[in-house]
């Protein structure tokens, strides 16, 4: 083989290798690109529908109306009721689950066999589908034969209506949400607690620092990024809650639990108003985006402060 043929033979593999090296980043990012497209297509479609008068039972009236759907919501008391209930439900569930999850995580922070077994057992509610959990609690809170109604009657509270009474409906669905999702907060904070450095706690123990001072001045500041992360995940899920509320009350009694997702569902499937349903979901997206940005900014600020002290 001549020198020219040999050099040509060596050039081809090098070109193929360089081409593969250039194409590899694009091939690796292809799944992420497909996921983005799969997310953006429904989002853009909903945004377009929200700017239209679009009812499935009146297709001949379909047309572009701009932001009229959004303006109608501003003058609709039902919308403000939905906004109030959604934010109230979100605040109650996130705060209660955060407090309970933090308390349980503190009790189980030592990695013993017993604590590990208890933490695994506490994850069982999280493995239950929210709709199934809601139906289970609906049976347990039935005023006629529910086990929880019977237990409450032993305490002297008779004929407690639970989710069928407007005064206790919110309490009932919040109770179910807390039962299902508190283990999620617990496992995140438990992982955070067990990953904290031991030196500050050992130094505080040697100096005889009170436990309250250690908790508020050492544990909580170091655990703050984990708390914000767990709260953000639960906030994004709670404000979009549908399964538990619809399975238990369908948004009732009346409009007592008419949160965004339930209202959008009813607008689409019951009233066949695609435009208003899409507009509701776009408003929900805007609220979620604002709240998540607030949490992320605080998380970045805490991380920057921690790196500054490091």
Uncertain stretches of 5 or more adjacent residues:
none
CATH topology of the domain at 83-273: MetI-like fold
So, the CATH homologous superfamily of the domain at 83-273?
Answer: MetI-like
Order of helix and strand elements from N to C terminus: HEEHHHHHHHHHHH
Secondary-structure content class: mainly alpha
Adjacency order of strands in the biggest sheet: 1-2
Largest sheet: 2 strands, antiparallel
In the CATH hierarchy, what is the class of the domain at 83-273?
Mainly Alpha
Strand content: under 5%
Tally of individual helices: 12
CATH architecture annotation of the domain at 83-273: Orthogonal Bundle
Protein name: Sugar ABC transporter permease
GO biological process, one term: transmembrane transport
Main location: membrane
GO cellular component, one term: plasma membrane
């Amino acid at each position: 083989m001549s020198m020219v043929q040999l050099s040509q033979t060596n050039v081809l593999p090098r070109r193929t290798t360089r081409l593969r090296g250039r194409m590899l980043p694009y091939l690796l990012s292809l799944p992420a690109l497909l996921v983005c497209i799969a997310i953006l297509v429904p989002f853009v479609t909903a945004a377009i529908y929200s700017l239209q008068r679009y009812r499935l039972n009146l297709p001949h009236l379909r047309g572009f109306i701009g932001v009229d759907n959004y303006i109608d919501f501003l003058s609709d008391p039902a919308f403000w009721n939905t906004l109030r209930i959604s934010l109230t439900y979100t605040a109650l569930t996130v705060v209660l689950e955060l407090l309970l999850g933090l308390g349980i995580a503190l009790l189980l922070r030592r990695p013993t066999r017993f604590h590990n077994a208890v933490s695994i057992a506490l994850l069982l509610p999280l493995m239950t589908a929210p709709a199934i959990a809601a139906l289970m609690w609906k049976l347990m809170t039935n005023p006629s034969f529910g086990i929880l109604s019977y237990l409450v009657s032993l305490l002297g509270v008779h004929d407690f209506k639970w989710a069928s009474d407007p005064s206790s409906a919110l309490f009932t669905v919040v109770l179910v949400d807390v039962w299902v999702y508190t283990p999620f907060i617990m496992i995140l904070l438990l992982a955070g607690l067990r990953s904290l450095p031991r030196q500050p706690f050992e130094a505080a123990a040697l100096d005889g620092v009170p436990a309250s001072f250690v908790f508020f001045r050492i544990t909580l500041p170091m655990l703050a990024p984990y708390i914000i992360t767990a709260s953000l995940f639960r906030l994004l899920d709670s404000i979009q809650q549908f399964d538990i509320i619809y399975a238990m009350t369908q948004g009732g009694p009346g409009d007592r639990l008419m949160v965004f997702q339930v209202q959008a569902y009813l607008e689409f499937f019951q009233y066949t108003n695609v435009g208003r349903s899409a507009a509701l979901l776009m408003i929900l997206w805007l609220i979620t985006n604002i709240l998540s940005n607030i949490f992320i900014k605080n998380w970045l600020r805490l991380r920057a402060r921690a790196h500054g002290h490091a």
